[in-house]
Write a structure and sequence with these properties.
The structure is a single chain. The chain has about 300 residues and is α+β, with helices and mostly antiparallel strands. It folds into 3 domains: about 1-60, no CATH class; about 85-165, Nuclear Transport Factor 2, Chain: A (Roll), CATH 3.10.450.10; about 175-305, no CATH class. Helices cover about 30% and strands about 30% of the residues. The strands form 2 sheets. Strands 3-4-5-6-11-10-9-8-7 form a 9-stranded antiparallel beta sheet, covered by helices on one side. A hairpin with a 4-residue loop joins strand 4 and strand 5 (about 135-145). Helix 3 packs antiparallel against helix 6 (about 215-230). The protein is globular.
C-alpha cells in the first residue's frame, strides 16, 4: 500500500507539470480501471510516460545547460575537457555556421557537453570560439546528432550551430528540400580515372592553393580518418590531402564555385604521416554533405573507399 501511495503522489506531481506543458494525456491502456486508478504496474508505466513527455518538452530548450531527461534535473557543469570526438563535433558546428553566415569563427576549446540518447544519440556541445576579425572569444553551441552504423561509419547531422542563446532548437530535418541525387541509400562508389576524364565540367579537381583557403576540407578528411580508426584517436592526426574532387548538381559558372555548394559529394585521397605503422599508407574517402536550407542544419555522411 505504501508503494502505491508514493506512486500516486508522484503521479499527481508530474501530472501538474504535464498540464503546464499541455501534455496532460493519460495513455489509453486496458489495465486502467473505471475509477481512473491503476495498479502498481500501470502506475509505473504512466510515470514513465510522464517523464518521457516532460523530457521531450524540455529537450530543445535547455539541453545545453540543463539536463531535464534525468530526475531530478541537473545542471551541466563546465569541465573544459580535451576529448577529441567532442572537439570534432564542435568544429563541425563552427564550419556549418561559417558556411551559412559567412563568418570565420575558429575553435578554441570545448567547455561542456551532454549526451541524450533517443532513437539517435544527441550531443549538446558548448565551446569557446574566436572571431579573428575582432580577436574576441565567445560561447558557441552545437547540437550534433549521430546515427552511425557499420555501413555508414559517419552519419552526423548538425541541428543547431549558433552563438550561445536560449532559443528553442528546430530539430526537424526537411528531407524534401534536398535533391534526390543525394538521397541514395548507398554512398557513391569511388570515381575511376575514366569517369573523371569523361566530363571535366561535372567533376572539379580542387587546386593546391584552394586546399589552404578552404581548411574545412582538412576537417572533413580528419573526420573520415577518425571513423576509419574506429573512433580511437585522442588528438588531431598528421594528414596530408593529395587530391579532392567535388561533384554537385548546383549550377556554378566556375569550377571552383563548387566548393561553395550547399550539397556536394567529395572524393578525397589522403595519407597519414604519423608514427603508427598500422595507418601509414594512402587512404580514400567519399564524403556527402547535404543541407535542408534551415539555419544550423547540415548532414555529413562518410565512408572509406579502399
Amino acid at each position: 500500500m505504501e508503494d502505491i501511495e508514493l506512486l500516486r503522489l508522484e503521479k499527481r506531481r508530474r501530472k501538474a507539470k504535464l498540464k503546464l506543458f499541455g501534455l496532460d494525456v493519460v495513455p489509453n491502456r486496458p489495465d486502467f480501471n473505471k475509477e481512473g486508478l491503476a495498479d502498481v504496474i500501470s502506475l509505473r508505466i504512466l510515470l514513465n510516460h510522464l517523464v518521457a513527455c516532460i523530457c521531450i518538452s524540455d529537450f530543445d530548450y535547455q539541453g545545453f545547460d540543463v539536463d531535464n531527461c534525468s530526475y531530478p534535473s541537473r545542471l551541466i557543469k563546465s569541465t573544459w575537457g580535451d576529448d577529441y570526438d567532442i572537439a570534432l563535433y564542435g568544429r563541425l558546428g563552427l564550419y556549418c555556421h561559417n558556411f551559412q553566415k559567412g563568418t570565420n569563427f575558429k575553435f578554441v576549446r570545448w567547455e561542456k557537453y551532454d549526451v541524450i540518447s533517443t532513437a539517435d544519440v544527441h550531443f549538446y556541445v558548448t565551446l569557446d570560439a574566436r572571431d579573428p576579425a575582432s580577436d574576441s572569444v565567445f560561447s558557441f553551441q552545437t547540437l550534433l546528432c549521430e546515427d552511425s552504423s557499420t555501413n555508414f561509419p559517419v552519419r552526423w547531422s548538425t541541428l543547431a550551430c549558433r552563438i550561445k542563446c536560449d532559443d528553442a532548437v528546430d530539430e526537424r530535418w526537411d528531407d524534401k528540400a534536398v535533391d534526390d541525387f543525394y538521397k541514395d541509400a548507398l554512398m557513391p562508389k569511388w570515381l575511376s580515372d575514366e569517369e573523371l576524364a569523361s566530363d571535366n565540367k561535372k567533376y572539379y579537381v580542387v587546386q593546391e592553393s584552394e586546399l589552404q583557403e578552404n581548411d574545412w576540407l582538412y576537417l572533413f578528411t580528419e573526420i573520415a580518418f577518425y571513423s576509419k580508426t574506429n573512433n580511437v584517436l585522442t588528438a588531431p592526426p598528421p594528414l596530408e590531402i593529395e587530391k579532392v574532387v567535388v561533384v554537385t548538381k548546383e549550377d556554378t559558372e566556375e569550377g571552383h564555385e563548387k566548393l561553395k555548394a550547399q550539397n556536394a559529394i567529395y572524393y578525397v585521397s589522403y595519407k597519414y604521416n604519423g608514427e603508427s605503422l598500422e595507418w601509414a599508407r594512402d587512404h580514400k574517402a567519399v564524403i556527402r554533405k547535404t543541407m535542408d536550407r534551415k539555419p544550423g542544419h547540415m548532414y555529413l555522411e562518410v565512408v572509406g573507399a579502399e
